[in-house]
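REQUEST ID: PR-0412
SUBMITTED BY: lab tech R.K.
PRIORITY: routine
TASK: structure prediction, single protein chain
INPUT:
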Amino acid sequence: MNILGITSYHESAAAAIVCDGKLVAACEEERFNRIKYWGGFPTLAVRFCMKEAGLKASDIDHIAIPRNPYARLGKKLLFALSMPSFAWKRTKDNTRYSKIPTTLEDALECDPASLKARVHRMEHHQAHMASAFFVSPFEDAAVFSIDSLGDFASCMWGSGNGSRMAIDGAVSFPHSLGMYYSAISQYLGFPKFGDEYKVMGLAAYGEPEYLDAFRKIVLYDEKKQSIDFRLDLKYFIHHTKNVPIVYPGNGKTAGRRRFYSDELARLFGPARNPEEPLEKWHRNLAASLQARLEEVYLGMLCNLAKKTGNRKVCLAGGVAFNCVANGKALESTPFEKVFVHPAAGDAGLAVGAAFYVWNQVLGKPRNFVMNHAYWGPDFHRGEIRSALESRGLSWGEHQVAELSEAELLEHAAGIIADGKILGWFQGRSEWGPRALGNRSIVADPRRPDMKEILNRRIKHREIFRPFAPSVLADATGDWFERSHPSPFMSLAYPVRPEKRELIPAPTHVDGTARLQTVTQEANPRYWGLIKAFEKQTGVPMVVNTSFNDNEPVVNRPEEALDCFLRTEMDAVILGNFLVKKSARKLQETIELDMETRRQALTSTAEGND
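STATUS: complete
OUTPUT:
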């Protein structure tokens, strides 16, 4: 039985295919069309999944869509009566969702008569919960989904047992921790979709000076043992007008209208312009924002543990990307085991919807555990060689070599140990936004200046943003204060105090690190690279960041090579091919990058005049 899950007409469009209860392929559309957070129909992702599974249109038995416009209809009507100024414009979206089978026929270029699949629609948060529980290693667990908004709810909770989930409660729009975090991020001068990640990193540089004020903005009483919360809506305007996420028709993620009201400026002062420098009070505001999120989020988890009596929890939804809060769940709540879906945001709905149909709707037993995130495209030796030749890298000023497995790992570890920056392109691409050792840039964690080097020379982003360590799983407890697995880089742990000076590059200013634990079973080659680095240096980890430069993570070898050539990476390994830049070529790249940035600054300055 074949189930196609589709996330569309929302940010992070994606597709996934589940065959007889096992995930075969999953990928975001942005990896193919190179438009970040693409929100149209995932045509290319669907085609990839079908090809990977070896299926044609007539082989699809079920189509799973994680949207139900009839969910919470009564609450929507009551809200519309109480807030007549709110333009609840969902007719076009609902029409698009109803036409997905027809759109799918066009995407697959098939005869309409051949597509006979049954279409299922479920609530947004039910799909989120399914994405976490039904692929987790737990037979039973508490389940929690939390994000900005989906089908008029911002979070939902319940419990899972075997192949069934029970929904126990939800928080309805306009109350939303995701909207709260986005609104304050906008106020701090980070207006774009996804900028919340930046603010989470910034929070570590401040003190929660304004926490008492934030306790009045987000209302939650832990003593009542409630899993509910409320926003003081006078500080927000997201509920007073329609807030578009996607430009109509073309799927590009739009700039959002602001979510915060003028009342917030009256409380804290004028909002920061994105071009203005970050001052101490901005950092303290970010710290206060994060601290209040943690109080409410962890308080809700504590009460969920009490209500369910379970000591295992599965998390999904955009707020579940807050690795700092997730890491504290192990010490601040009764939960002893945590599983976070690697694509916890809305891309993950494609997988969740498919498994919701397989387990919850069809009642099929569970027979799959997501113990790795490598569900995207792979490229064989010939394709990589052709990409090298197409970029003129078989000869000339670059050193190109094809190595054996042992030579490859030894050379790669040596490059990193020498303080150089290495692009690492292997196997199937990762599902979700985190590079987990197949589409990664790796570097030496021992270098104090490596974070600045990566931010300035490779990633071209804010200097305060941290980088993650990939650590051998069995060495986790030796270097961090907790050893619970974090295979998808979704938990942040304190680095042991005596180890912080040894690995300054991935250690954040607050002494924590958002780590990825790596096992030989999940990724033998990446594990082998880190093991080789450990043999050379005594340190069982490398710095790991996504293989990209202000773009979606690279997908194809051509994209990896283009990123390598235009940035200051020293070397790249694609499959078994090692490419090194000559000293002269690297200097030319540095000079070109500096000139490009100088021209950009000059252009910006002239434009501001």
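NOTES: The longest strand covers residues 140-150.
REVIEWED BY: pending
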